[in-house]
Structures are given as C-alpha cells and as structure tokens.
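Lest this sound abstract, we think one record worth quoting, the chain in one-letter code, the fold tokenised, each line plainly labelled:

>
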Amino acid sequence: MRALYTFFLYLAFPIVLLRLFWRSLKNPDYRRRIPERLGWLPFNVLKESLWLHTVSVGETQAAEPLVRRLQEQFPGIPIVLTTTTPTGSDRVKRLFGDSVIHAYFPYDLPFAIKGFLKTLQPRLLVMMETEVWPNLLALCEQHSIPTILANARLSERSARGYARLGPFTRETFGRIGLVAAQSPADAERFLGLGLGSDRVRVTGSIKFDVRLPASLKEQGEALRRTWEGRPVWVAASTREGEDEQILDAHRKVLRALPEALLVLVPRHPERFDKVALLCQREGFTSARRTTGESCGPDIQVLLGDTMGELTLFLAAADVAFVGGSLVPTGGHNVLEPAALGLPVVFGPHMFNFSMISRMLLVEGAALEVTNTEALAEVIIEWLSDASLRARFGENGLRVVEANRGALDRLFDIISGYLEAG
C-alpha cells in the first residue's frame, strides 16, 4: 500500500510543482528555496538535532513557549523548525531569529525524506497537531528516529476518512512513537486507528498555555485611542468565501451602530489585495494598515494586511469573530481572544477546534452563529452592552486559566526522549 501511495505521489508531483508556482504568482516566496522541499538543505550535517515541524503560523505561534523552554533546558541541541508555508517561515524568523534553523518541510517522497534525514540526523522528530506522512514515518522507523505527534487532534470526519484505508492507516499510524492528544475524544479516535494504548496520552492543548506579552494590553489601548473610542469588532483569520459574509454582517451592524469599525484580517497575505478590492466594490470606506492611512470616523473597515499584528488588533477591540468557521475549513484558534477577555463568536464549522469551541460555548464565553443575520445580531448586542461583553470575556478567561498545563506535560515527554538519547 505504501508503494502504491508513493507511486501516485510521484505521478502527482508535476501537479504539485505547478501548484507551487501558481501560488508563487501571488506570493513569490513560494518559488524560493524549492530545493529544501526536495530534501536538499543549504547547511552542513547537524548531528543529533531536534526536528520540530510546526506547519504554519498558528502552530508555530502555539509552539513558541515549548521551543523557548527546550532551548533553555537543552542549549547544546540544535533545533530545526520546518513549515510548509512562507508565512510560517516568516513567523519562525520573527519569533526566534537565528536561534533556530528554519527549513521548508520536504515532500513525502522517499528521495526527499532520505536527503533531509541524512543532513539533519535528528535524535527526535516532533510533529504538531495532524501531520501524518507515511514515507516520513517509515524512514524514521528505519533509521531508529523516535517520533511524537504533539498537541495532536483528530476530528471525527478525519478519523472516518483514515479508517477507510484500513491496513494502510493502521500500518502508518502504528509507526508513530507517541501521540500526545489534546482531548480524550482525540485519544479515542487515535486508538481506533490501531495505536496501542501505551502510545497514546492525553496532555491537553498547549494553546491554553498562551502567554501574551505584558505590554500587549497597553499597546492595544494606544491603538484604540487612535480610533477615537469607537465600538470595534475584529474578524480574525477569515478565509475565501467568508469576507463577503463578514461585510454583509457589518453593513447590518452599521445600520444600528453607524460609528462601528470592523477590523478585517484575512488568513493569507496573498488575499490582501483581493479583499481590499472587495471592500471598495461593496461600497465601504476602508483603509489598509500597511499604508498608514488615517482610520478616522469616516472609515468603516480597516484591513489588517500586516503579519503578526492580529493579537494587537484583538487587544484593541471589543468583540472577536474567529474566521474559517462560516465556511467549512474547520475554524481557527479561539483562545487568543478568550485570553484577552474578549467575547468570541464563530460559525458552525469549528471541527478543527471542536473540543475548545464546545468548552467556550458551555461556559458562556462564546456564541455560535449559522449565518450573517445572526452574526450581525450578536455583534450589535455585544457592542451595545458593555456588561454583557464583560461577562462573556470573564468566562473565557476562566476557561483558559483552568486548562493550562499541557505545555508542562508535553515538555516532560520530549525531555524524556532527549535525555534518553
């Protein structure tokens, strides 16, 4: 089955490259450093390194405190962080500078994985959340490289999809050394795919261990003063097909609250220009953060077209909508706005964060909506009632504080592997 998987992967490889070049038309960084994706790394052999794969921005941000602690505890072990996207690469550089080595994650082709492993010679591979690659796991097993799937989550839909592959799934997942699952439900799904109970532990989500800079609230207040005390809601990490719905909701909000400001933050930078044109086409007076345009009382939409400023926008806002949830992409991290004491609203498609979103709903820290009309109603109600916002925000803070500790548990697991090595 793995040979058949590899055969089809080779057949699809030209399409993969074409897609890479297509994406590079909007973001040139996609066509840079392509050899790394093929296993050719621009540095010498790093014996006994720790390889941590964080995929993109969200996983990299969540892994920051783990990386800091590992650097402090094991200063002699080089840390190599891999991502699949240029935005992830940029986030690694902003967070860690030259203290870690960044490379793009290799395609799951045998020659690429072999070249990668030959250069790194890692003592341990830690993959974040849902990264399961058959050839990578097989070659790590062949070279006696332990593997950990950390902060692991597996939705019910994904579990059903994997289960259809039968023996191939059991063989692939059976090669994972240890799964550190976010919740008991995630752990049960991994067990159902053939992992032994001795190789699955429930550690919780390290996203609860988010530590926001002490100066963030002060910076948020300073930004808010430039908006002259207007009611503000942030639409965070919106995806394709969602921006139109957000703008439709904002039009309804403006009818009730003409002074309201929407800070619209698309998930991917290659969409910034498209969303800016959409705002204009829909008739909104708008400004872009990157141009430094004044966000005076006439501005209805501020496009957050910068990288790394989402938490600042949230710190300056009254209400947060979390994107990727009005369209079926699975949602995004709801804990950053909750940790800032903001009331949170999201759509019905939160399957990537099902446990966390349910917790916030049950504890009265968030609301779920199914359409733009309901979204507009929630935003209007919250922007009009400071005490209601405060109650939801306080509930969210309590949920975050009560569930911290996953970082410590995951660090202990990784330390055990490194010390044994």
